[in-house]
Amino acid sequence: MGEGVPSEKVDGHGYWGEWRRGRQRSSGPEKGTEGPRAKMLALRSALVCPRPLCRSVRSGCRAWLSTCSPDPKPPLKKQRDEGNLQDFRSRLVGGPSLQHFLQSATPTQDAHRLPVEIPEDPAPYLGPLTLADSPKKVYLETFGCQMNVSDMETAWAILQRSGYQRTRNLAEADVVLLVTCSIREKAEKTVWNRLAVFKTLKAKRQRSRGSLRIGILGCMAERLKEKILDKEKLVDLVAGPDAYRDLPRLLAVAESGQQAANVLLSLDETYADILPVHLGPGATTAFVSIMRGCDNMCSYCIVPFTRGRERSRPLASILQEVQMLSDQVGGL
To answer: Which residues form the Radical SAM core domain (predicted)?
Structure first.
């Protein structure tokens, strides 16, 4: 039997004996002088035998060689991605900053000044007697978060334009408006308990002088809608967070002896043109609303359903309100 002829009887080990002899022949330098690269080349040459090894042996050796390859070059795609990232970073450093966009959006100095109030024509459903001769007095109560405090100031600004007066004495009020919260059941229970107190007061008022009008505003009104009017007959009007502009009309309808409701949500209402009347005399802090609604749709939160989609106030409107508050504090 020749030395280069494959045989299963060589060394009694079959293919393995042939593979070992081939490895010995191509082992290269003497022991102690060969490097890792020479060893790998020797192993690769040993795999080239006259008779192919079994598939499992070949796949195992190739997998081992792929992990032991010296100085592997990075893939071309990785090099391309790193180059693109470096190019993006260099362009980002030389690009416009946040200050650039704020300066381009900042209105002129004149826009910071409060506009001159132009007398508005009275609404057709509010006669001269309602506006001038016998102004109605409004009592306001707020439940819930700071957003409801801001809503109360906005609602009062709208009513003040229509000739209403504000009172802090519940006994002399002609209209009671509750800005409500619906984030938890306890907040709604507080409002129901408060309505029970007003029920007794309304019954006494009807016997003594003109009837007392009670309105529910805010998130609870938006969630329950007309159910409030059905459950509590003493409630005269219901208005959602986006219906405060309609309050004079709703109150006029209530004065005629009917119940009124407006719970329509808006996609663009921000009350940007209405400067809230901040009620705290001599106060040095105030809430400035910069957006309304929410788009997050958290499973535990009702805000997207009671305040509608998210929308932001124009920047000029926010700066105008801040300037107004600054002028008020400067005049104290």
So the answer is: 280-332
Name residue, tokens 């519940």. 170
CB 292, CB 310: distance < 8 Å? yes
Please state, in angstroms and rounded to a whole number, the distance separating the CA atoms of residues 276 and 244: 12
**Pick from 176, 119, 116: nearest CA to 152:** 176
Using DSSP, state whether 312 is helix, strand or coil.
strand
Nearby residues of 118 by Cβ (< 8 Å), 6 or more positions away: none
How far is residue 181 CA from its own chain's centroid?
A: 19
Taking only the tens place, the pLDDT of each residue in 97-134 is 777 767 765 555 554 454 555 555 555 555 544 455 57
Smallest CA-to-CA distance from 215 within 194, 238, 242 is with: 238
- Give the span between the Cα atoms of 305 and 222, in whole angstroms: 8
∠ Cα 214 216 219 (to 5°):
175
DSSP bridge pairs for 138: 166, 175
Q: What is the pTM of this model?
A: 0.61
Amino acid at 23: R
CA neighbours within 13 Å on the CB side: how many for 222? 23
Which residues are CB-neighbours of 304 under 8 A, at least 6 positions away?
293, 294, 295, 296, 297
Contact predicate 265/242, CB 8 Å = yes
* Of 307, 281, 283, the residue nearest 295 (C-alpha): 307
